[in-house]
Structures are given as structure tokens and as C-alpha cells.
Amino acid sequence: MNPGRSVVVPAILLAVMAALALGQRAVERAAAAQNRGAREAPRFEVDPRWPDIPDTVTMGEVTSVAVDRDDHVWILHRPETAPAVLEFDGSGRYLGGWGGPSDAYEWPAVAHGISVDYKNNVWVGGRGPDPPTDDMLLKFTAAGELLLQIGRRGASGGNADTLNLRQPADQFVHEGTNELLVADGYGNRRVIVFDADSGAYKRMWGGFGNRPVDGPAGQAESEPLDATGPGPDQFTNPPLEVTAVHCVTVANDGLVYVCDRDNRRIQVFDLDGTYRTQMFVNRTAESRRSASRVAFSPDPEQRFMYVADFNSRVVIVERETLEILDAFGSEGSGPGQFQGIHHLAADSDGNLYVAESAPGSRVQKFVLRGMERL
Questions:
Q1: Sign of the CA dihedral 353, 348, 295, 40?
Q2: How far apart are CA 166 and CA 260, in angstroms?
Q3: Residue range(s) defining the domain that contains residue 64
Q4: Helix/strand/coil (H/E/C) assignment for every residue in 118-177
Q5: Number of domains in the chain
Q6: Full-model pTM
Q7: Antiparallel, parallel or unpaired: β 61-67 and 73-78
Q8: Is residue 288 part of a domain?
Q9: Could you report the per-residue pLDDT of 248-288, keeping only the tens digit for each?
Q10: DSSP label at 10?
Q11: Domain with 239 in it: what CATH number?
Q12: By C-alpha distance, which of 329, 289, 286 is closest to 310?
């Protein structure tokens, strides 16, 4: 070919080349759209060897589990004797324990919820129903030294009381504001917020952001629950063993997630209590206790939300859309099965720790094994 001459490409060849280019771009666009629309969810595998409980520790009725900033796992259970709080590392090695009745503080008659805040302080609440009721929340160092008590046993004045709780079910400290949010809980029907250091009251709200009010006891557990519409305007004010506001936690983007367990729903709020939206979990299940606790995947966006469904399964939710993607678990005592699933927590590697109350009375570790297409 003479380098001094221009090359003339036939028109038909140009047309073929253009068509091929357009076809390739169409394939690429279709593949990208498929990937964007692909439904996938995390896949977990139970570790049947976790944890390694020493012979000196007898596990009682497990009520709650939490993971701290070092990925240590904290278990709260109801033993006849101390320690009530047990600490393990991620491999399942026992690190120590403390807690239980003491002259130094009012330990709950029925221990219920444990959480560890961003400063590694440990919070413990209870749901003792018999007078005097557990109307307080305790803050400890990781070594078990009492730092703060909010409320006093048997002192609650109801939903308008800003000094005392009434059988608080769960709590979470938001790092951005250093605020303690309490799911209050078994006796009241509210989320109440305190300064996490001083215990000073800041604000409260009820279902849909309404003012929480005292009211008649909720439906008996044997009565059918309405499975249509948005549900009651207030969090359920339950009788006996049926619970109302069972969990509260704050995502990285500041959204507050509240488990209204017996209404089978999770409501979402801004930090100031402004209502955003809600989702229902297993609304037609035989047991009304479907939304017991939530945890998030450890990515910055916290793409996935995990819901402890008392009906023997963990529900996987796309957090942004609140779409239920998948679930795992079944009724039974074997590895990976559940009996009385009550709480759960996630570590920084995305593994889940699931606490079962009676009759399960154990914590199981589920190791993240990657993603799978649905």
C-alpha cells in the first residue's frame, strides 16, 4: 500500500462495522442493566463449633447478643448465679464474665437486652414483670464497673414519665449525637432518648411518630391479629408475655429502625422521631412475634438488614427498599435451626450471631460465605 495515498473504505463495509459497534454497545448495555437488576443476597453457613464454653460456665436462658468494636461477642443470659454477662472473641474463645445481682446496683429481675456502644460500654436492661418491675437501664464498663443507672425499680409512672423506664427491651447509642435510644418496651409503648453520658431526658415518640400514650392492654395472644392495612397508630401495649417495642437501632445514615414485634412490623424514623416508612415481616405467621431484632451488613451503605423472626428464621432485607430478599432457618435443635430466635448481631466481617431464648438457650454463629443470585 502506498503510504501517500488515502484508503477508501467501501460504504457497505462501513455499514457492517457500524452495525457491529451498535450491537456490542447494546450487549454491554443489556449486561449492565441485568447486573443492576440482579437480585442477590448474602449466603451464610453455621459454625457448629462456636462458641467454646468452658466447663465452669453453665449457659442459662439466653436473651441477647451484641458485638463490640473489637468483634468480641457479648451474651446475656439468665443464670441462677453470676456471671450473667459472658464475653467471647470471634473464634469462640471465652474471655470472661460478670454481672448478676449486686448490692451496688439494681440488677434486672429478668435480664433481657444487652448492647455495647461505640466507647465499648455495656448496657443491660430487663423486663421483670412482677412488682416491682424492672424500670431501669444499667451502663457498665467492659470490665463490669457500673457507670450509670437510668430509672429505678418499680418507679415507672407510665409513658409520660421521663425519669424512669418500664421493662425496656433494647437500647442503642448513636455515636454521632452520643444519644441513647431505648425501646421501652414491655410495659410502655415508646422510643425514649437520653444523653448517653448524663442520662438526661431528650425526647420520645410512639408508633408513626405519635405521642405515646397509656392505654388498655393489647390483644391477648390467642386473639387474631389484623393482617391488613397499616396497623395500629400506636406501638402495641401488650399484656403478659406479648411484647411491644422490642428493638431499636440506628443505621449509618441516621435512620432509626424500631421493631414493633407483635404488630409484625418494623417502623423507620429520623433521629428526631419523624416517621418515614414501615415494613411487615411474616404478617400471616401463626406466632405474632415476627420482628424481634435487626442488624445490618458491615459495608458503609449497610445494604442488607437482617431481621430475627421469632418464627425460626432470619429474614434478609434490602435496606434501601425494604424488600425481603431471602430467609434461612427452620424449627429445630440442630445446627442452623432455631428454637425461640430472639436477638442477633453482626460483626465487621459480616458474620451473624443469633441468640435463641427458651427452649433453644444458645447463640449460633453464621459465617458469611459470599453472595448468591436469587
A1: negative
A2: 16
A3: 52-373
A4: CCCCEEEEECCCCCCCCCCEEEECCCCCEEEEECCCCCCCCCCCCCCCCCCCEEEEECCC
A5: 1
A6: 0.88
A7: antiparallel
A8: yes
A9: 999 999 999 999 998 899 999 999 999 999 999 999 887 77
A10: P
A11: 2.120.10.30
A12: 289
